Amino acid sequence: MKKHFLIALLSILSLNLVNAQQLKSPNGETTLSFLLKADGIPTYQLSYRSKEVIRTSKLGLELKNDKKSLLNDFVITDTKNSSFDENWTPVWGEVKTIRNHYNEMAITLNQKETNRQMIIRFRLYDEGLGFRYEFPSQKNLTYFVVKEEKTQFAMAGDHTAYWIAGDYDTQEYDYTTSKLSEIRVLNAKAITANLSQKSFSSTGVQTSLMMKTANGLYINLHEAALINYPCMHLNLDDKNMVFESWLTPDVNGDKGYIQAPFNTPWRTIMVSDDAREILASKMIYNLNEPNKIKDTSWIKPVKYVGVWWEMITGKSSWAYTDDYPSVQLGITDYSKAKPNGKHGANTDNVKKYIDFAAANGFDGVLVEGWNVGWEDWYGNSKDYVFDFVTPYPDFKLQEIRDYAKSKGVKMIMHHETSSSVRNYERHIDTAYKFMKANGYDAVKSGYVGNILPRGENHYSQWIINHYQYAVEKAAEYKIMVNAHEAIRPTGIARTYPNLIGNESARGTEYQAFGGSKPNHVTILPFTRLQGGPMDYTPGIFEMDISKLNPSNTSHVNATLANQLALYLTMYSPLQMAADLPENYNRFADAFQFIKDVAVDWDDSKYIEAEPGEFITVARKAKGTGKWFLGSVNGDNSRTSNISLDFLEAGKKYTATIYADAKEAHYKTNPQAYTIRKVVVTSKSKLAQFCAAGGGYAISFLENK
Amino acid sequence: MKKHFLIALLSILSLNLVNAQQLKSPNGETTLSFLLKADGIPTYQLSYRSKEVIRTSKLGLELKNDKKSLLNDFVITDTKNSSFDENWTPVWGEVKTIRNHYNEMAITLNQKETNRQMIIRFRLYDEGLGFRYEFPSQKNLTYFVVKEEKTQFAMAGDHTAYWIAGDYDTQEYDYTTSKLSEIRVLNAKAITANLSQKSFSSTGVQTSLMMKTANGLYINLHEAALINYPCMHLNLDDKNMVFESWLTPDVNGDKGYIQAPFNTPWRTIMVSDDAREILASKMIYNLNEPNKIKDTSWIKPVKYVGVWWEMITGKSSWAYTDDYPSVQLGITDYSKAKPNGKHGANTDNVKKYIDFAAANGFDGVLVEGWNVGWEDWYGNSKDYVFDFVTPYPDFKLQEIRDYAKSKGVKMIMHHETSSSVRNYERHIDTAYKFMKANGYDAVKSGYVGNILPRGENHYSQWIINHYQYAVEKAAEYKIMVNAHEAIRPTGIARTYPNLIGNESARGTEYQAFGGSKPNHVTILPFTRLQGGPMDYTPGIFEMDISKLNPSNTSHVNATLANQLALYLTMYSPLQMAADLPENYNRFADAFQFIKDVAVDWDDSKYIEAEPGEFITVARKAKGTGKWFLGSVNGDNSRTSNISLDFLEAGKKYTATIYADAKEAHYKTNPQAYTIRKVVVTSKSKLAQFCAAGGGYAISFLENK
């Protein structure tokens, strides 16, 4: 018997070997293997230049209240291989043209007992893998509920990870750099207070997750095209170093209501031995559907200022009055309320920002706190919290609109929803129409606090559907969206390029809430920015917040030169100059860089990159051919040694270098900077000092 | 010490007696007492003609996560007494003018520890009491969450009750008649299957709850003006016969998110020793706010037929095709689908109904199943289930619209939401605009199945807000609403008279789903109809459902004469003739009554009434002066002995009496009826046989 069993086992093993199907990336250096294990369990494995990236990992989904989960009992009924190579032109971006080049393998599985079909589609790029589950239209699988997706990502070692804790409601955490095995003990410390948060596991982390292996690989796990499905977190089995998907549940703990035909989002694994390739990859965008907006002429990158930082620092307020214990829209009579004297969105102040924007070439002015309801907007689970159309008495909408128009400046709308999602949807058409009637082409939306409907999470399927609804509806109105506290992007801006920005990470505002880690901005491009641009709101020149608000002792953990570099390193078609005009006026020479820098690009060259340490990138401005360069540095000072070989050969440029002074330090001396001009060519080398939490920025002007 | 304690106790007791505050109804026969008990607990007591109606009962609310609930520690800081007497004219109704006459006592309580204010406002009518909690705007009570409302209704005995089981999602139950003490054992049997249901307690019952006492009182407990608050159920402490409010929770178990200033709905206790006065009472309407719709010219009572009963019986289908395992709006190509051959809402069939309506003087034609999505509309928790604007290929919208217009018939829209509430709100503006563009003035909406957002209940605050939103928005579009499966009405049609109907009870459809109790219609006017009209869809002439659909063996437990009487006894400004045209053509002489009967009234006289047994009412048609009379009977045959003294003295009338034949019986011989004409005056008496489950209907034509 035993012998027979062994023989049987060997046959299975050899059968498995026979069954294993391989796919190679276009350059042949990345290899995917797919294998049905015993009992028909689908597995995959990924390697890069003969190094194991993903050890054999299971695939499948656990269903709720169903006769059988989609985990095993499968046979392969079809395998289709194909190749794809195409260039496409983004509406805005880091580069003019994006190449989408992959080899594909689609494996059709049939579950024997249920006679259900599931396709696993793999797309293998030179820089990584995307795969998804597909459920074709079929009689035996129409509607089903996902109890948990059981996609594994088995790591080949105890890698270094740059992680934030898994959370159903926020990504606004500082990153922790640790070994995978240390996540469990460091988790509690990694979770800092947030206005809405729900963690679920001491080994849960969020994507995009960046890792580095002992043998020199950079690995990134994320997802692409997250539509009508819950956000995927990763939970680590830290005995075996196996990550498994952990979807965001709805209020009942369910993790996805599916109707076939349906495709899940793509699960992505980027890999390279060069960290710069992770930053340069467009794989996430490539895995998304092409642009669905026919006329994109109204989608334009935006550099803007706004009445915002003064509220964030506590210098002024969103609310108009302190008179009422609570307010009710349509009932509270603001005309009779006593102004609190520190309302930021008053007409005079807004005009000051408009003047500043006009004088310095900014496209737009954002104003928060312009509309009634801010007196009790947060923390009350208030349903009818904003109407998105009624200004405070001191915000003269028409006067401001006309003034901005006369100055050639676009007003940017603000829709804080307070996460009262039904209320926003009830008003969204009226609100968008109001925007268009008053010349607003872009909206910053916000989802602060706990979601209504109560019990839902920021990242559950139901609410992800809402964010998508808001973006698609905005497209109908030709409105650009910059959604804060919404789901972190997964490349959907390819399909809906009116989604010009998101927050969905710890932004600059935290520098006024106690500060962020100095190396935060050397990690974000590897993680949060993989899915799309961030409205990071850089450009803070006054690091001592008490200068703005004596009762706020927060310190901005960055040098002034670092803040300039962010306009390059934190790629976004939407860039704010977040500080107050008076602070820019104090440092007019440094401010010149923010005035000059472009926000849309024909080309980008990642020159140096190491997560947590430094990022240096040069970009060629759209249309003008001007080059700009930014370099941000982590916790320790260093010298950045780079070549300027991205410049056009044979030409001379005047490089204006905005850099940390020798004595600069993010904490003790953040405003110590130097500005120097040098003539350079593509053969020039640069050795540039970078302070701790510092960096440098360069504008290149061709000498003609 | 003991002696001192006793003296102290006596002082408190006497103080309490001194503190007791009394309010008498306008006619002096109903008395309310309010008393703060020891520890500042508010209580009330109600009596009628010296009989105890409500024994001393506690008042207050338990709060969630709050420093102190609103249950005790109160002192009275103010008492305001006033009287009110006014006549108002409803847009539609049982009578031309309604008198709102009450004495009021508003008691302001202050909670000592928290310094919070709560007002309890009592309005005492001759036929009962309404009271509510009011939370004025105040610093120490702004936002709070109700854990449970703790309003007691202490019964003075083990009364007979006509009840349906408490349920968060449905009221579509048959009534059980039992002693209060028997509710617990009968509860499980009382709960029959429903597409969405959630019971919560074996002694939980719904309002409006009708009771009869051993000493001859009729008592009704309900609520009025349920807006922005959960529906109140009642849970019985059956040792002490004390009902306590049991609010419908949200998905988290919370029972009301409140922002002060706020008033709860009114809790109502109707009482009389004459059951007819309960039916005639307009107290629930009177406790609602006056009409908020300025121009009401577009609100018109409606008598209608529809493509509906044929689907309910299974003779035809809502769905167009059986081709697809599931459908996706905007993706499924219906033009390529094979019709299933039994789709009711096809153009020819609709035209047949339009012809029938035009030929017989009906105002409107309802068509269900006209729009795409019915193939998988129920039970799949499907979000985007209907779009409310796209017809099936065989429903030629424009052709039907034009045809109906040429025939002088109004089409009635149908919006089944499948309880996908967000989806309905997303489409509601477009759907209402579509209605107006195509000549629809009224909509029947439906909320079948479990609510989305998932976990919410049909009667929770969040969803009650939705029903109200739909009604108010419809008013903006001048659309009349008839909402099925929505919250049972609480008199809101006074404020929004475009709410011309609701279902919210076990309607005629259940006669095709296995049948209802024969005496069901002798209870509904005492219960469900207290809050507003019901779209009961009477007028079934063919009781053997297998004649329509051989595979449906259900039997309509009513005689044909009973079905005619319902047009009087089930007051509604919206009345359907629910059966198929061919069945009406078979009984053209009886159908004449449905053609003749009015749907709006200048006066109504309840002549006989006993819950569960019989109801006889005469009504004077609006404008025409014609009288109609209806009488429904319960389980046992009887003779109805009435006087026709409601007729105008000195005039002669030809009464056409549609009655049960002697051999008639709801089960064995439901179609045995007689029609006779007699000349009558206001001095005439009538002794009319009523079969079990039977009744009679009379039209009076003045002899001139």
TrEMBL record, chains A, B:
One of its GO terms (molecular function) is carbohydrate binding. This is Glycoside hydrolase family 97 protein. Residues 308-505 form the Glycosyl-hydrolase 97 catalytic domain. It comes from Pedobacter frigiditerrae. Residues 1-20 form the signal peptide. Keywords: Calcium, Hydrolase, Signal. Monomer. Residues 600-700 form the Glycosyl-hydrolase 97 C-terminal oligomerisation domain. Its cofactor is Ca(2+). Residues 23-290 form the Glycosyl-hydrolase 97 N-terminal domain. The lineage of its organism: Bacteria, Pseudomonadati, Bacteroidota, Sphingobacteriia, Sphingobacteriales. Pfam families: GH97_C, GH97_N, Glyco_hydro_97.
